[in-house]
Amino acid sequence: xxxxxxxxxxxxxxxxxxxxxxxxxxxxxxxxxxxxxxxxxxxxxxxxxxxxxxxxxxxxxxxxxxxxxxxxxxxxxxxxxxxxxxxxxxxxxxxxxxxxxxxxxxxxxxxxxxxxxxxxxxxxxxxxxxxxxxxxxxxxxxxxxxxxxxxxxxxxxxxxxxxxxxxxxxxxxxxxxxxxxxxxxxxxxxxxxxxxxxxxxxxxxxxxxxxxxxxxxxx
Length: 219
Description:
Layout: H1 25-41, E1 47-50, E2 55-56, E3 65-66, E4 70-74, E5 84-85, H2 86-89, E6 95-99, H3 105-118, E7 123-127, E8 138-144, E9 147-151, E10 155-156, E11 161-166, E12 169-174, H4 184-212
Protein name: Uma2 family endonuclease
InterPro entries: Nuclease_put_TT1808, Restrct_endonuc-II-like, Uma2
Keywords: Coiled coil, Endonuclease, Hydrolase, Nuclease
């Protein structure tokens, strides 16, 4: 019997399949917020965060693919991709998040969990924003050897973050400072507050100058 070699040069690797990005708006919002928060957190590092893009893991076999909701890859060039091919980039995703539901439970808990372990994804997090099948909403696994074991302390060792449930979103907290990574709305509010404080300080300084002149300087 003659083995059939894949036609590597002719293989096509699509970037979309026309399927919906997420099951509901709640899942979509959780996915996009997770994507943006982690992008901001990893800015300036040799890392990228991708969302709902095809992850190809077998060269020459474009049907062997999966589209994680959010995946974090280290030691690669920052920025987006149309899709991600492990053999071209040289790195497997280190952390993957799936926004799961009752409709995707079997695939997320069985097929994807097995596949990600085989690909040696270090951490796999399942987030059920509606609590349809995960009562605690968030469930994490860490790779030990060839199998995943439950993460019991809500700590992502690979990201150096503590994860927490905040209604229908995942909250991320730095392990070194305890500081929360702000979501875009919170970041906008914090920037607005900082801008207001700066304007108030400038107004106070202007009133001082009107009454007393310029501030004294060290001679």
